[in-house]
Amino acid sequence: MNASQEPSRATRRRALVASLCAALGFFSCDGGSDTSPAPAPPNLSEPGANVLLLVVDTLRADVLTPYGGGADTSPTLSRMADAGVVFEQCRASSPWTLPSMGSILTGLYPRAHGAGLVGIERCVNRRPEGKYGAAAPIPEEGTKANRLADDVATIASTFANAGYDTYLRSTNPYYSYGLSDDFERAERGSATAEKVVDWGLAELRKRDASRPYFMTLHFIDVHTTKLSAKGMQQDMALFEREGRPPLGAELRNWALYTDEREEFEPLLDDRFRMYQACARYVDRQIGRLLKSIERMDTGPLYVVFTSDHGEEFRDHWDVDIASGHTDPRRNWEKVLGIGHGQNLHQALTHVPLVVTGPNLPAGLRVSETVGLVDILPTLADLTGVELLAQTDGRSLVPVLAGAPSERPAYISESLAYGREKTAFYTSDGYVLIQPRSGAERPQLFDLARDPTETTDLYSAETDRARSMLDALKRWESRLASRQGERSVDDAETLELLQDLGYAGDE
Ligand SMILES: [Zn+2]
């Protein structure tokens, strides 16, 4: 069949969907309203396509094969990268779940959607004195997280408004802070990736196929590495090391070994290899999910693979101490520079973003900086769904189409532990990390030359730092600011958070 004589499958499908939409009147297919993004180039959008949003909690980009990870952690993601688009430089809006997921689900920065600990000295898990030593000296102010503000439009309400059935399987307790409210079909609670995938497939099998679906699946396994140990023997086998205890065995409490460098380093390596094995396990489950959906043939589908933040394995300990960084966990965990929530460096803020779907260019790699705030406007643009409100992000569809880009700046903010600061990423590849307290010094890194941020250029490039600070102030003055409602923390949620290493409110 000659393509020039026959409309493409995508064109025929678009025309069919457009006529169905017009007949049913359940959503806008042309995106023609004041709040809609600019219309997508016709060869990229697929109005009415289904959407699958896969969020792998705590997954830093650089351990993944399409992002140069040294080990084979991600065969499924590699296949997705070959079939779709890899955004090489995606910035998380925050280094921990609640504010960062808030940004994925609203397209707003934490200061605008209100979820997290916006604008205060903070520590989400101030432990009771006696269990881990003295209570932390920070914060002077609140220790409770805020819920997502009630008046923001979410990705679920946006797609539901356009006639989509919306599904969520969440496994992180922070969804209780307003993140799951707008999904029509939602199940919460800890579960392995295998169970999450099973849930998603079961829902797809029984859905009403006359309506498109928007499904979010959130995987907690990489965050809570012991959770899935039973089901990931084959994945752990790939990362065992001779002379070390088998992965999945009792991981010793590394806090006890802070001052014993010789014992601590192998322990850190054990943790990292377990982390890689978990990434591989989740990737394998996602592979099963995608193959099953393909067999079910649920129709045109955009798949987004991303994470809310990364995980640090003492990557930036030295450079942070030199800048006066304070982590309030030091009095009870004793090990700094591990976990997440404590700083705005790349180990925590550089996350994967890979998108596949109808009409997208296969194997495209986009090097310009993008952010998690872009996911909602991009998906709305690709599917012809009308945005319900402005976002802080932008549609990446013009970037995919090769249009000249304004290359805007991005920020990360809202720490879980320590004094608040803002990371300001500019289009020339630099990041200024600006503390809001005079007790810490700003930091400046050239991410293009120094992606792991080993050399702080703040003192050497004062002119650049000053002009970036001016630009940040101008840029911030345009951002909305909103304080979320204080959460009413129920005992069950707090217990779940404690299991994850968070919480322990007084
Ligand atoms: Zn998280």
Q: Your description of this structure?
A:
With 506 residues, the protein is of the alpha/beta class. The chain has a single domain, classed as Alkaline Phosphatase, subunit A. Helix content is 29%, strand content 15%. It has 14 helices and 17 strands. The protein has helices at 9-24, 75-83, 97-106, 110-113, 155-161, 193-205, 233-237, 261-296, 317-322, 346-349, 375-383, 397-400, 462-476, 491-499; strands at 50-56, 85-91, 122-123, 165-170, 185-188, 213-219, 301-306, 312-313, 338-339, 350-351, 353-356, 364-371, 410-412, 417-418, 421-425, 430-435, 443-446. The strands form four sheets. Strands 1, 2, 4, 5, 6, 7, 10, 11 and 12 form a nine-stranded mixed sheet that branches. The longest helix has 36 residues, at 261-296. It is globular. Residues 1-35 and 125-142 have low confidence and may be disordered. The structure holds zinc ion. Zinc ion binds next to loops.
Concise synopsis of the structure shown:
With 506 residues, the chain is of the alpha/beta class.
Compute the number of helices. 14
CATH topology: Alkaline Phosphatase, subunit A
Q: Rg from C-alpha positions?
A: 22 Å
Which CATH architecture is right? 3-Layer(aba) Sandwich
> What would you call the shape?
globular
Write down how many β-strands occur, each being a DSSP E stretch of 2 or more residues: 17
Cα distance spanning the termini: 70 Å
Name of the CATH class: Alpha Beta
Helix content: 25-40%
The distinct ligands, each listed once, are:
zinc ion
Give the helix/strand class. alpha/beta
pLDDT < 50 runs, ≥5 residues: 1-35, 125-142
CATH superfamily: Alkaline Phosphatase, subunit A
Sheet bearing the most strands, described? 9 strands, mixed
Average pLDDT over all residues: 82
